[in-house]
Structures are given as structure tokens and as C-alpha cells.
Give the backbone structure.
Amino acid sequence: MRAAALLLAAFAAAAFAQEAKRPSPLKPGPEFQSPDVRALQADDFANPGMLWVARGGELWRAPGANGKRCADCHGVDAVSMKGVSARHPRHDPSLGRLTDLSGRIDACRTRYQGGPALARESPDALALEAFVAHQSRGLPVKVSTEGPARAAFERGRALYFTRVGQLNLACTHCHDERWGRTLLAESISQGHATGWPAYRLEWQSLGSLHRRLRACFFGVRAQQPAAGSEDLLALELYLAGRAGGLAVEVPGVRR
Amino acid sequence: MSRRLFLQVAGGLVAGAALPAAAQANRILPVQDIAPLIEKITGGRPIDRRDVTVELPSLAENGNSVPLRIRVASPMSATDRVTDLHVFAERNPRPLIAAYHFGPAMARAQVDTRIRLAVEQRVFVIASLSGGRFLSGETHVVVTSAACIDEGI
Amino acid sequence: MAIARLQVPSTVRAGEAVEVRVLVQHPMETGFRREADGRAVPMNVVHSLVCRLGAVEILRAEFGTGVSANPYLAFWIVPPASGELVVEWVDDAGAKGRVAAPIAVS
């Protein structure tokens, strides 16, 4: 019995040690894009994601269903939003659950602006998310993975290391073991989410991280978790913990 | 005149909305004969194949948005200037991409934009000059993810 | 109305060439894209875009479906006089857009 317990403990320790070191050196997404995609992201005028940031700014200042504007509580210039995106996903005590930025914005809209829920991936949701996240541009990602967030962090990590789909691959196989190598014509990134929501050339639109993660699951021919699901939120938290210290670079531009 | 050209191209050259999904590009998007389109611009007059630089990355990561810079060596004076640019992509389902018409305040015969390219192909630019002359330039691009054919997830 | 951005220096020396940059939010639907149920999304692109300074037409552009979504255009002008630089466009569905910026020529 004691031997079995020891064996189990050793196995569990080995599984957690499998966390694998973070990629080294840490490289954000733009380093794996072509030069003109990098240049487009760096161009604050031509970066198409900035159209969504601009629209988000309009929504920030526009009255909600009950007449209240985001600006009324948070200030017209949104300076109060600095750092907010860098701390998400987080366990939100007022909501009693892990939430990402998109979920937090939706909660504000429904609770304090009397509005209907903001559907994920809707134009307004993306615009607000891009606007708020953009206020954290340049700040290091710093999420809490302890306390109430610990369970979700472990869940995200487990998912990150789980083989899925017909191709039977886990995130780690590409983004830890083979980053920088070429897959078809593309350079595999380290899988950091610092540029999201991002303008994706393939989508010809700005889109959310959850949409991108779902595309990854599609890529290995796995069932796609739903956007906003606990699985994707947990995975998002794990990725953010893993990217700790890298700067927010919203809106990113990706191929 | 160009607007009619665009409407003709949209109606005509390749089967309308039903692009097949399989990306056997050579069969589905062959090089098209754009000479008749070019002739509508030049009226059959000769084209000098020089002085027009078509800048595109030699490898486009995603055909949905490829940066294009067109430069024509021209004094852009009142009597010697570029009046129009026409851009063609010979294997796009609709080969006429864009047309630009320059008024007198244009300082340079230069345009920066972003275009869609379906497959590896040549991109041509015809420059119309004051005085009824024509110049042209071209370049070749390899495209990894095809606009119009490859759907996003 | 669609979000659009226009960038041009607000003050210019007489005879100086300056760059005008325009970015318009528009999906530029090709008519080839399909919804999840398989139906093709109808073609709808910004087909005409005009830039004027006062009454002077600076540039007129026609776009087909080969122009990228969220069309971007940059070009160089010598503003003939102070005035409002206006960019206007219309798409296949008849929706119009407009963005403007003042230029002072010294």
C-alpha cells in the first residue's frame, strides 16, 4: 500500500515536472511572421487591427442601454485600463469564476450598462476587447496562477500537454519542441498569446484568441472546444502564465 | 471607362461564385489572356516595357493581403506625367485588380496598397502617360495561402 | 458608417510633397467566400474611392475584388492650396463613406 502510494506520488511528480521549461529564449509572435507582416503590425496607421481599436474607442464613449458609458466609470481616456488586459484571464471575485477580458467586458455591459450580452466574436465585442487590450500595449503579461486560479491553471497545463485529434498532437509538440521550424511554408511560433485579439490575414478580420485556439484544434483534426468554454479559458490562463514577462502587443497582425 | 472594365471583368472571365474547393491551382486558375483587357486601355497603341516598378514580396505568406508598391519614373510635370495606372493579376479569378486616375496635384507616380492574390503568378501594371504613351512593368509572386480559394477557419 | 482613417500632415509648405494615407474598414467581399451553411456571401466591394482637396480632384481609384479587405492606399500630393482633404467612397451595395482632414499650406 505504501509502495503504491509512493509510486503514485512519484508518477504525479514526474507528470508535473513534465511542465517542461518555457521556450528559451522567449520570443513573441511577430518574430515568426514574415517581414511585411511584422512591418504591418508596427505601423500604427496601416495596422488593420487599429480600425477595431478605433471602433472600440467609439463604443467606450457611447451610452449603453441604460445610458451609462464605459467612460463614465472608467474615464474618457481609458488610462484606467492600463494593465487590465495584462492581468487577464483572472479569477474575478465579483463573478466568482475565471474570466478572460472578453467575459469581463460582457459582464460590465450586462451588469452596469443594462445591455444585452455581447456575443463573443461579434464586431462590438471584438472592438471593445481590442480597445481595452490595446491600453496595455507594452506592459508585461502578469497573471495570477495561484489561489483561486490554481485549479484552472493546472487544468490548462494538462490540456496543453494532452494529445488530441486525428493527428494526435499536443500543443507542446509544436510550440515547445519545434518552435522556429517550418511547417508547410510557415515558421512555428512559441504559442504566446500576447498579440491577441489580432488581425489575421487569413480571416481578413480581427479575431479573438479563442477563435485562434479553435483553429489550432481544427489543425490537428480535433474536436474544437467552444469559445468561452472552461477548457479554453484554462488553456488561455496557462498560456498567459507561460508567457509571463512578454509584452502585450495588441492589436497583433498575423498571417 | 475603367468602371465599365471592372463590371465586364466581374461578369465574365471565370465562372462566377462557384469556385471549386480543391486547390489544383494550375487547372482551376490558369494564366488568362489579359491582352484584350490591356487593349481596352491602350487602344492597341504600343507599350514601352520600362520605367514601371512593381514591388511585391517575392513570397506572400497569405494571399489575402499582399503589400504592393507601384512606382513609375516620371517627372510628373504638367506636360509629362502619369495619368492612370491599371493593375492586373493574370491568374486571379478577376484579373483586373485596381485602376488609379491621377489629377494634377499628384506629386509622384506612386501608389501603395494591399491586394489579394490567389496563386503564384505575375502581376502587371500598365501606366498611361499624358500624350498617349504607355509604359508597363511586371513582377512574379509566390503565394502560399491563396486568396479566394483557401477559406479561413 | 464604416470606420476609416486618414493621415496627412496638417501644415505643409507651398510646393512641398506630402504623403496621404487612407485605411477604410470594409470586408471587400469577393463573392467567393461561403458561410458555414455553404451559401456564397454576395460580392460587395468598395468600387470607387475619390480624394479631393476643395474642388480639385486629386486621385480617383476603382477597386475590384482583388483589393484586400480593409483597403489601404497611400500616395503623394502637392496640395495646391489650403483646404479640406476629403476622401469619399461607395461600395456595391450603395453604402457611402467619407473621411476628411484639414491642410494648411503656408
Remarks:
- Chain A touches chain B through 20 residues (CB under 8 Å).
- The radius of gyration of chain A is 19 Å.
